[in-house]
C-alpha cells in the first residue's frame, strides 16, 4: 500500500509540473487550470501575451522562451500587465502578481514601458526586467519620460533625496567689486605761477613747499622793466575824456592785463597815480604749494615756473579694474575708498572709465572723484576700493544652489508640476549674498530646485543619453507609417 501511495504522489507532481509548462505555452496564467470554473471562462490563446519567463524560486533569472530549472521546475510565464512595476507614491519596485492575485495595474498612468535602464547609470538597457550584478532592479522608462531630459520624481523618492524648491522673485543685488589704485590730484585744480616778461625776484614771502595758501595771498615781489613801462603809459592816459581818449585808456589797461598784472594792482596804480617799484604776485587759488622755484634775486624769463599750487579739497582715485570685470562698472556707481591704516572709508562715485587697457596687466583705469576736506587723502597714496556694482534696481534672482554650472553651461531645474522637473539652460549676471541674477531662461514665479538638484540633473542627463541608445519602435518608424 505504501509503495502504491508513493507512486501516486509522484504521478500527481509530474502532472502538476507538466500542466504548468503546458499552461505557460498556451497562454494560461500561472496557478490557473485549463478546466473552466464556475462564473469564469477558461483562458485561451487569445489572452494577454507572454512577455517572458522568470525563475519559479524568485531568483534574478529570466528567459525569453520556456525553460526549466536544474531540478526540473518550469519557469513561470509573466504576461503583459504582470511584469515588475514601480509604486508611483513611493518609487519602490512592486513584485509581479500572479494570475490568482487581484488585477491591479502596475502602470496606472497607462503609459507603455519602453525599456529598462541600469539603476547605477551605466549605459545598459534591457527590453525586459532584470537585475544588475548587485541585485538591484532595472528601472522602467515609460513613454513620455525620455523626451527632453525631463524627470519625474515620486513623492517618496523626493523626500528621501532631500529635494527642495523655491519660487523665483525679484530682489536688489549689490555686490562689491574690489580694486586697488592710488590717489592723484584733480588736473583741473592745479595752477602754475609764472611771469610773462623778463623779471627779477626782489623778495620771496615766507612760504615753502607743502604749505597751504589762500587765493590772493602774495607769494613774491617782482620787478619787471616791461611792466613798469606799461604802467607809466597807463598813468599818462588815465583820466582821458570819453570817445577816442577812452579807447586809449582801455588799450593801456589791456596791455598790463596781457602781462598778467593782477587787476587789484592795476586799480591801485590808477588810484595812487604812481608806478610801484615791485609788484606783489598773488596766489591764483586756495591750495597747497607743490613746487617752489622762486629764489630771491633770481632773474625770471617769460614762462618760467615760479610756483605750482594744487587744490586738494577734491582728489581722484585712479583704480585698476580687471578687464573681465569692466562690463559690470558704470559711470555714477558709488565707490568706497579706504587708505591703508585708515579706520574709515571715503565715499565717491565713478566719474570716468578710461578708453584703454594696459597691455601688460590687462586692466583698465577707472577714475573716482572723492571729497577730501580733511586732507586725509594725499597724492600717490595707495588705496583699496569697493565698487558697488549692480545696485540699479530689483532683478530676477535665484539662489546660488539652484544653478548647476559646468563652466561653459549653466542649467536650472524647473518644476513643471506633478513631480516633473525640466532642465533649463540659463544666462547669469551679478552674484551677491548667495543669489545670482537670471538674465535669460527663467521667468518670475517659476519654481526651481535648490536642494539635491545634482541628483535630478544626473537622472535627466542619463535619460537623454539612454534615449539615443534605445532602438526606435518599429511600429512608429517611417516605413511602417508609409
UniProtKB/TrEMBL annotation:
Occurrences of domain CzcB-like C-terminal circularly permuted SH3-like (ranges): 397-456
Record domain CusB-like beta-barrel: where: 315-387
UniProt KW keywords: Ion transport, Signal, Transport
MF annotations from Gene Ontology: transition metal ion binding
Alphabetical list of Pfam families matching this protein: Beta-barrel_RND_2 (PF25954), BSH_CusB (PF25919), CzcB_C (PF25975)
Regions crossing the membrane: none
A GO CC term assigned to this protein in UniProt: outer membrane-bounded periplasmic space
Positions of the CusB-like barrel-sandwich hybrid domain: 190-310
PANTHER family recorded: CATION EFFLUX SYSTEM PROTEIN CUSB
Family from the record: Belongs to the membrane fusion protein (MFP) (TC 8.A.1) family.
Protein name per UniProt: Cation efflux system protein
Amino acid at each position: 500500500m505504501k509503495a502504491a501511495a508513493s507512486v501516486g504522489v509522484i504521478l500527481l507532481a509530474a502532472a502538476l509540473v507538466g500542466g504548468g509548462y503546458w499552461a505557460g505555452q498556451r497562454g494560461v496564467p500561472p496557478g490557473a487550470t485549463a478546466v473552466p470554473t464556475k462564473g469564469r471562462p477558461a483562458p485561451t490563446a487569445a489572452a494577454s501575451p507572454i512577455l517572458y519567463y522568470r525563475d519559479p524560486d524568485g531568483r534574478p533569472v529570466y528567459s525569453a522562451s520556456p525553460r526549466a530549472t536544474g531540478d526540473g521546475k518550469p519557469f513561470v510565464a509573466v504576461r503583459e500587465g504582470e511584469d515588475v512595476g514601480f509604486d508611483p507614491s513611493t518609487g519602490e519596485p512592486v513584485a509581479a502578481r500572479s494570475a490568482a492575485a487581484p488585477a491591479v495595474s502596475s502602470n496606472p498612468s497607462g503609459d507603455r514601458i519602453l525599456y529598462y535602464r541600469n539603476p547605477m547609470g551605466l549605459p545598459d538597457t534591457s527590453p525586459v526586467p532584470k537585475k544588475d550584478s548587485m541585485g538591484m532592479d532595472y528601472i522602467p522608462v515609460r513613454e513620455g519620460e525620455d523626451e527632453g531630459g525631463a524627470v519625474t520624481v515620486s513623492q517618496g523618492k523626493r523626500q528621501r533625496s532631500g529635494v527642495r524648491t523655491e519660487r523665483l522673485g525679484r530682489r536688489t543685488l549689490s555686490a562689491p567689486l574690489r580694486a586697488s589704485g592710488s590717489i592723484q590730484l584733480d588736473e583741473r585744480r592745479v595752477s602754475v605761477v609764472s611771469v610773462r616778461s623778463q623779471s627779477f625776484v626782489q623778495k620771496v614771502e615766507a612760504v615753502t613747499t607743502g604749505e597751504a595758501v589762500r587765493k590772493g595771498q602774495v607769494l613774491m615781489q617782482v620787478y619787471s622793466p616791461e611792466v613798469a613801462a606799461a604802467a607809466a603809459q597807463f598813468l599818462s592816459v588815465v583820466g582821458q575824456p570819453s570817445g577816442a581818449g577812452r579807447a586809449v585808456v582801455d588799450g593801456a589797461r589791456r596791455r598790463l592785463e596781457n602781462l598778467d598784472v593782477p587787476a587789484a594792482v592795476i586799480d591801485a596804480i590808477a588810484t595812487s597815480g604812481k608806478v610801484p617799484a615791485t609788484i606783489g604776485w598773488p596766489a591764483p587759488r586756495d591750495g597747497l604749494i607743490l613746487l617752489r622755484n622762486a629764489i630771491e634775486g633770481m632773474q625770471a624769463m617769460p614762462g618760467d615756473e615760479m610756483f605750482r599750487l594744487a587744490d586738494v579739497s577734491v582728489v581722484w582715485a585712479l583704480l585698476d579694474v580687471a578687464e573681465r570685470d569692466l562690463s559690470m562698472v558704470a559711470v555714477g556707481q558709488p565707490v568706497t575708498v579706504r587708505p591703508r591704516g585708515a579706520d574709515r572709508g571715503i565715499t565717491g562715485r565713478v566719474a570716468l572709465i578710461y578708453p584703454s587697457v594696459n597691455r601688460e596687466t590687462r586692466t583698465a583705469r577707472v577714475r573716482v572723484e572723492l571729497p577730501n576736506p580733511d586732507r586725509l587723502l594725499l597724492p600717490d597714496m595707495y588705496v583699496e576700493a569697493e565698487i558697488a556694482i549692480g545696485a540699479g534696481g530689483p532683478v530676477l534672482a535665484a539662489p546660488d544652489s539652484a544653478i548647476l554650472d559646468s563652466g561653459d553651461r549653466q542649467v536650472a531645474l524647473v518644476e513643471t508640476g506633478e513631480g516633473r522637473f525640466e532642465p533649463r539652460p540659463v544666462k547669469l549676471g551679478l552674484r551677491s549674498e548667495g543669489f545670482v541674477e537670471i538674465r535669460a531662461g527663467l521667468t518670475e514665479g517659476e519654481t526651481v530646485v535648490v536642494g539635491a538638484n545634482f541628483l535630478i540633473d544626473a537622472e535627466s542627463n542619463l535619460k537623454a543619453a539612454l534615449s539615443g541608445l534605445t532602438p526606435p519602435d518599429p511600429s512608429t518608424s517611417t516605413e511602417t507609417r508609409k
